[in-house]
Amino acid sequence: MIRRVGIDVGGTKALGVALDETGAVIAEDRRPTPRGDHSLEPLVDTLVELAESLGVDGSLGVGVPGLVTREGVLRAAPNLDGVADFEVGRLVAERLGHPVSVDNDATCATVAEWQLGAAAGTENMMLVTLGTGIGGGLVANGAVQRGLNGFAGEFGHMVVHPNGPRCPCGRRGCWERYASGSGLAMLAREAATGRRLRAVVEHAGGDPQNVRGEHVQAAAREGDADALAVIDDFGRWVALGLSNLTNAFDPEMFVLGGGLAAGAELYLDPIVRWYSELLYQPQLRPLPRIEFAQWGPLAGAVGAALMPGVT
Amino acid sequence: MIRRVGIDVGGTKALGVALDETGAVIAEDRRPTPRGDHSLEPLVDTLVELAESLGVDGSLGVGVPGLVTREGVLRAAPNLDGVADFEVGRLVAERLGHPVSVDNDATCATVAEWQLGAAAGTENMMLVTLGTGIGGGLVANGAVQRGLNGFAGEFGHMVVHPNGPRCPCGRRGCWERYASGSGLAMLAREAATGRRLRAVVEHAGGDPQNVRGEHVQAAAREGDADALAVIDDFGRWVALGLSNLTNAFDPEMFVLGGGLAAGAELYLDPIVRWYSELLYQPQLRPLPRIEFAQWGPLAGAVGAALMPGVT
Lengths: 311, 311
Known about the structure:
Two copies of one chain form a homodimer. By secondary structure, chain A is of the alpha/beta class.
C-alpha cells in the first residue's frame, strides 16, 4: 500500500498525517516547531522525525507558512524566526532518501479542499484562509495556480483602503487588516472604544484594549446585539475582498478556511448577504458558492500529502 | 488559404479584420455601431455585412463590450443601448451559415496580446485595458480564464477605497474610478479645484470642470510640473490595482491596453515605480514585466479572429 505523508509547519507546531490510497487519514502526529535564531537544523530534524514516525515510504509533502518559490525554497516566513531562503525540500530529502515537495501552507490547504474536500469536482476555485492574517490559493482551469514566483494566493495583501490601518507588510489598508482574526479584534476594539460592546468587553476581562476575536464570538453566541453588529461589519469586509476576487476570476466557489472557520455558523450568513450586495452585477449570474472548509486544522497537512501527485 | 475574421463591437463603431494563417492583418473594415432602443436587428445586420465584406469563409469571432456568458450570450452592455441577453452568436451564425464565437472585448484583446503580441510565449498573464473604464482578461496555466459565468477579468470593479467616489455600477471606490481615463480626469479636476494646474486648465479652455485626461496629457507633454504630478498620482492608482492583482495571481506579465495606451510614454515610468513600492515583498521576487499592448486599437478584432481556435 502507498502511504502518502504530509506535514504542515505552523508557527507553534508541525502537524503530520499519513493518507492511504483513498485519501483517508490513517495516522497523525505532531511536534513543537523549533524556534529561535538557529532553528533551521532543528526544523529539518523535526520534519525528518515526523515523516519517519508516520512511516514515510515514498514521497513527502511539506507545507510551510511563507513565500515558497516554484523550486520549493522558503524565501521568507514571518512566523518562523530567522528563516530565509531555506532549501527545506533539498535538506529533508537528503536526510530521508525520498523526494520532498514543498509548497505554501495555504496552497496545500487549497489542494486538500479541491481534491478531497468542499471544492471537490470544481475546475476554478479559491481558498481563503481567515486566521491571524489571510492566505489562500487558487485553482484555475483545473490546475493549481502558483504564479511566476510561486507567490499566487497572497490575497490578504490586496489593498482595500489606501488610508487604512498600517499592515506589518509596510502598506496600509491590506484586506487582512479588516477581514482576519486580527481584523475582527480591531473592529471590535474600535466599536468598544465608542463605549458600546459592554458584553464583549466583559468577556475580555473589562478592558476594551484586550478584546480579541474570541471575545466577540463568545458574546455573539449569547445573542449580544453589539457583538452581532461587529460580526456583521466583519462579514462586510470579508465579502468586499471576495467580491474583488470574483470580479477578477469569477470562480466556481470560495472555500473559507483558517482559524475563524471554527465560528463558521456566526460568519457565513453575514458574509453571503454582503457578498451578494457588493458583487458587480449580481443579478446577472448564479453566485459562486461560499462554504467553509471541510478539513479544518488538517487541511494543510492533507494537502501537503497530496501535493506530490498534483500538477 | 484560411481567412480568420474578427469583429470588435465598440460603443461607436464595429471594427473588423481578416487575418491570414500567420496572423498578419490582410484586410480591415469598419461600420458605425447602430444605437437606440431597437438596435439588435441592425447590429446583427452590421456584423453580417462586415463579415461578408471581409470575405469570411470559415469561422467568425466577435468581441462585444459587456458581460458575455460562456455560451456567447451578451447579458448586459452598458455602452450599447437596449442590449440585454442578446444571443449575438446564434443570430449572426444563422445569417452567415458559419459558426460564430462571441466573447468579451477585453478577453479578445487578451488573446491577441497573448498569442501574437506583447505577451507571446507566456503561460500566466493579465491584460488590463485603461480606457473610459477598466476591463481586462487573464491567461492562467496556459489557457484563457473565463470563470464560472464567463465574467472573469472585470478588474475595474475591484473596490480599492470603500468610501471612494460613487461608481455607475452602484458601489463606491471601484478601481476604475481612479485608474481609468475617467479617473485621470477626476484626479486632475480635484487638483485643479485646489487652484493648481494652470496649464492643464488652459488646455481645457479655462474651466476646471471641463478637464479631461487628454488635457492632462497635453500639459504633461509640455513638461508642466502640475500635470506631471497628476500623472504620478494616477500612476500610483494604476499600480495599486496591479499590485492587488499580483498578490492574488502572481502573473508573468501585465499588458496595459485601452485608450490610455496612446500616452504610454507618460504613464509607464510612474506605474512601474509605484508598482515596485506597493507590491507585497518586492525584494523577494523578480517583478512581473509591465508593458503596453502591441496591437493598439486592433487588439479586440484580432483577438476575436483568433478566438475560435483558442481554448
